[in-house]
Specification:
heterodimer; A: 175 residues; mainly beta; Protocatechuate 3,4-Dioxygenase, subunit A; 9-stranded mixed β-sheet; 12 strands; 0% helix; globular; B: 232 residues; 5-stranded mixed β-sheet; 4-stranded antiparallel β-sheet; 3 helices
């Protein structure tokens, strides 16, 4: 059988939005790990903010396991300035292909009007020693890796802007 | 272990669709970087009705029936081997019978229906089956090109067993004269792939003296890499 084709989420997907889903700690406030905020701005090929997008995240817990203890899913609607904001914990390193270890990372899936299929990228943490040996970052041309590296702009606040097209275009992943 | 093959050539729309203006400034110019599937892509959030309550009836809101033609829409969620995807979460949303979304940014001059909110959430069962009751949505104009109207459609968001299966699509209705004029629908190059986005009119889903029925089967990426136990 052939997979059903993707279609755009369009501009009215907020009908299924639940703003509280952007707070991954809402029902698991006692989850172990370092509290973080993940924030950024989504812009288009003109650098204009995309204020109608849906950003989803998927991540491991502090122990590096997906949905074993920590429910690592979140969703956030971008605001008028294209900004998204999640409250979560910093994930641990995740086992990779073979005997490799993936650096702590958060997967982002972006759905919006004008996106026929969602785009996927990963957020890594700038300065994290495991980044050097990460098998997925190694596949990305070095000059473009900074588009996947969040910066800690204040204690616990990690910021990564997403550029859909053009100058500083984010590296999207074919998963 | 499950593997997630990439969609067949032409069976998914390209990111740049010249007929659909909103893709112009939003499609990436660089090709995406292909990566092997790791635990991050082969795992998925566990969605359960306990934490994400199901509601399958959009035809009634706050105890009052919505205006329009009541229909039942159902089908199966399957993988590429035709096996059921169990426990998939479906998020469904749509315009009302007049073609208006219950959404602050929808400025279409058509009436809102106070008894129609337009969203549902259901989970596929052991056979991959799911079903919702709703109102047939209306077509509505949009600003893409002169006299542009979207064909009648219902949005579906799918959450399967791997984040690589995550997808959003739209279901269309058979016989809609707007389909060949719609740049979103027509962007998928393969005609058979487009056809699969159109629900089948299906009396098996109809209920006597109450609602007509449509069937929409959804195939997610993925096949079971290890053969199932042969019971024979």
């Amino acid at each position: 059988m052939t997979t059903t084709a993707s279609q755009t989420a369009g501009p009215y997907w907020h009908i299924i939005d639940h703003p509280e889903w952007a707070d991954l700690l809402r029902d698991q406030g006692d989850a172990p790990g370092e509290r973080i905020t993940v924030t950024g701005q989504l812009t288009d090929g003109d650098g204009a903010p995309c204020g109608d997008a849906m950003v989803e995240i998927w991540q491991a817990g502090a122990d590096g396991a997906h949905d074993a203890g920590f429910h690592g899913f979140g969703r956030c609607a971008t605001d008028d300035r294209g900004r998204f904001n999640f409250r979560s914990i910093k994930p641990g390193p995740v086992p990779g292909p073979g005997n490799s270890l993936q650096a702590p990372h958060i997967t982002l899936a972006i759905f919006a009007r004008g996106l026929m299929n969602h785009v996927t990228t990963r957020l890594y943490f700038f300065g994290e020693p495991h980044n050097q040996a990460d098998p997925i970052l190694a596949l990305v041309p070095e000059s473009r890796r900074p588009t996947m590296l969040a910066r800690e702009t204040a204690p616990g606040i990690w910021s990564l802007d997403i550029r859909l097209q053009g100058e500083g275009e984010t590296v999207f992943l074919d998963i | 272990m499950t593997e997630y093959p990439r969609p067949a050539e032409g069976s998914w729309p390209p990111m740049e669709a010249p007929g659909y203006g909103s893709t112009r400034k939003r499609h990436a110019l660089h090709p995406p970087v292909r990566i092997p599937h790791t635990l991050t892509e082969t795992s998925a959030p566990k969605f359960t009705p306990a934490a994400y309550p199901a509601h399958a009836d959009m035809s009634v809101h706050e105890g009052q029936a919505a205006m329009g033609e009541r229909i039942i829409v159902g089908g199966r969620v399957l993988d590429e081997d035709g096996r059921p995807v169990r426990g998939a979460m479906l998020e469904i949303w749509q315009a009302n019978a007049a073609g208006r979304y219950h959404h602050i940014r929808d400025r279409h001059d058509a009436p809102l229906d106070p008894h129609f909110a337009g969203s549902a959430r259901v989970f596929s069962d052991e056979e991959g089956r799911w079903q919702v009751t709703t109102i047939k949505p209306g077509a509505y104009p949009w600003g893409n090109h002169p006299k542009a109207w979207r064909p009648v459609h219902i949005h579906f968001g799918l959450h399967g067993h791997g984040f690589a299966q995550r997808m959003i699509t739209q279901m269309y209705f058979p016989g809609d004269p707007l389909l060949p004029l719609d740049p979103v629908f027509m962007a998928t190059p393969d005609a058979a792939a487009r056809e699969r986005l159109i629900a089948k009119f299906d009396l098996d889903y109809a209920v006597q003296d109450w609602a007509l029925g449509y069937r929409f089967d959804i195939v997610l990426r993925g096949r079971n890499a290890t053969p199932m136990d042969d019971k024979h």
